Amino acid sequence: MTETTAAEWPSLTDLRSRLTGGLLTAADLLSACLRRIEEVDPLVRAVLALDPTAREQARESDRRIAAGLARPLEGVPVLLKDNIGTAGLATTAGSRLLAGTPPRDDADVVVRLRRTGAVVLGKANMSEWGNFRSTGAVEGWSAVGGQTRNPHVLDHSPGGSSSGSAVAVAAGMAPLALGTETDGSVVVPAALNGVVGVKPALGLLPGRGIVPVSRAQDAVGVLAPSVADAAACLAALAGGPVVRPAPARGLRLGLWQGRRMPGTVLAEVERVAGLLRAAGVVVVPVELPWEGPPLIAGMEALMAEFRVGLDGYLAARGGPVTSLADVLAGNRDDPVELELFGQELLEQAAGVTDEQIAGAAANRARARWWAQDAIAAVLAEHSLAGIVAPTSEPAWRLSGGGDPPTRNTSTIPAMAGVPNVTVPAGFLGDLPFGVSVFGPRDTFVALGLAATVEEVCGDRRAPRFLGA
Q1: Pairing of strands 119-124, 146-147
Q2: Could you tell me which residue ranges the Amidase domain spans (predicted)?
Q3: In the chain, how many domains are there?
Q4: Contact partners, residue 210, CB within 8 Å, separation at least 6
């Protein structure tokens, strides 16, 4: 383990077998992660904080393993996005305003994680406030952690908002990481950095104790080297079956090209479709609708949900920042927070009226029903098990002037609340390309379809840190 890289991590099944079989200790596995972080994190700035109790957690795992009391993720280090509450450890959502007042309690998902025996390794950088601060924001940037970088090509974006979680797994700093997604925040950075990202079905994992964007749409997700590893993590946290690839021959999958994707992406989509067809999958071209009224309803709901959710979270957490109004004022007084871009989304949310708040539930329901019906209609019309689509355009070059407009396919499954799994499926030049698999409402059924896509056309490569 001393020379491990992203391409050399054993599978989670192998790691657990080595740990329980006495071939590896949890303390040694943790040390390997810490060495890797020390080696490569200065290049990518993915890790915000290390948990000072991690070594004691690892020793406790070794004691439990020796006593024959190992739990499902015993001794496995896991990195957490820094909006996921950890008692006594920085949970900033990227904002300097929260840096001095860590939460008193673990988020519910962290309670579950500890019960599985996992070692909480530390916290990962993220797009500040879940990328819900400015239309001119830079993904992967926070005032606390600075700019996270793509480990494949360092002057390119890592995507967001679960930037550090995706980069850390891609660069071999942790076998697993947790992120969160409202719309694209797990699957897009996973695709841009060449790892598996799973946004589970809404509600599979609990959201209490997490800095919210939308309590009605936020989901805790997993970033991992493989579908099997992500599935094992989710099974440990939520209960679930062993995931195996669905038989490829005769499997019917829809192929959605997304909206206005560039030609390079469309060519890669056709290559993936060809591989699937060669393996016996019936690939059917499909279209998903893109209608203004339900999309606008979803955004109007999101604004109100953000205001109400963040006010409630900050008031319950305590400390000097107890409301969205405090955040706005604190950012204006801080020398770092507004140096790259503004906070117009926060200001817009602060201006939400009581009438808009009262209408948020109806707007959310309208948007969700539309998205669910859009997916269900396509599946039923063509007798499909699921849909495959390009997750995103490849990573773009970083600049201080904000991110360029980019296209992805995460919005409809996010609004529908259905699981979405992205799988590394190739490269465009030096940059990873991923495909999303969604459609089924059951997370583990979707994972089985994604495992098939991974088996047929998966292509994950260790990053080369070009430009270092």
Answers
A1: unpaired
A2: 28-441
A3: 1
A4: 83, 84, 85, 107, 109, 180, 218, 220
Q: Which amino acid is at 331?
A: N
- Of residues 61, 142, 162, 185, which has the active-site annotation? 185
Report the alpha-carbon distance of residue 420 to residue 343 in Å, rounded: 29
Is 185 considered catalytic here?
Answer: yes
Interatomic CA distance for residues 429 and 59, integer angstroms: 43
What CATH number is associated with residue 448?
Answer: 3.90.1300.10
* Nearest residue to 33 via CA among 9, 53, 60: 9
Host H or E run for residue 266: helix 263-278
CB 233 within 8 A of CB 186: no
* 134 has catalytic annotation: no
Q: Using 50, 70 and 90 to split pLDDT, how confident is the model at 450? A: very high
Three-state SS at 426: strand
Sequence-distant (≥ 6) Cβ neighbours of residue 315 within 8 angstroms: 322, 323
pLDDT digits (tens, 9 = 90+) for 293-335: 999 999 999 999 999 999 999 999 999 999 999 999 999 999 9
Which domain, by its residues, includes 456? 1-468
Q: What is the DSSP string of 391-413?
A: -BPPPPBP-TT-PPP--BS-HHH
Q: What share of the chain is helix, strand, coil (3-state, %, to 5)?
A: 40, 15, 40
Given this model, what pLDDT does residue 8 score? 66
Beta bridge partners of 423: 435
> Angle CA(211)–CA(371)–CA(346) in degrees, nearest 5?
30
Whether 161 is catalytic is yes
Residue recorded with tokens 């009224």: 293
The 8-class DSSP code of residue 337 comes to: T
Give tens-digit pLDDT for 209-259: 999 999 999 999 999 999 999 999 999 999 999 999 999 999 999 999 999
Active-site residue identified among 81, 134, 165, 392: 81
Asked if 313 and 211 count as a contact pair (C-beta separation under 8 A), the reply is: yes
Going by C-alpha positions, the residue among 168, 82, 96 that lies closest to residue 125 is 82
Say how far apart CA 414 and CA 69 lie, in whole Å. 38
Q: CB atoms < 10 A from the CB of 280, how many?
A: 12
- For the segment 80-108, what is each residue's pLDDT rounded down to a tens digit? 999 999 999 989 999 999 999 999 999 99
Which structure tokens are listed for 440? Answer: 């089924």
Contact 196, 240 (CB under 8 A): no
Q: At a CB cut-off of 8 Å and minimum separation 6, what does 354 contact?
A: none
**By percentage, how much of the chain surpasses pLDDT 70?**
98
- Count other Cβ atoms within 10 Å, centred on residue 355: 8
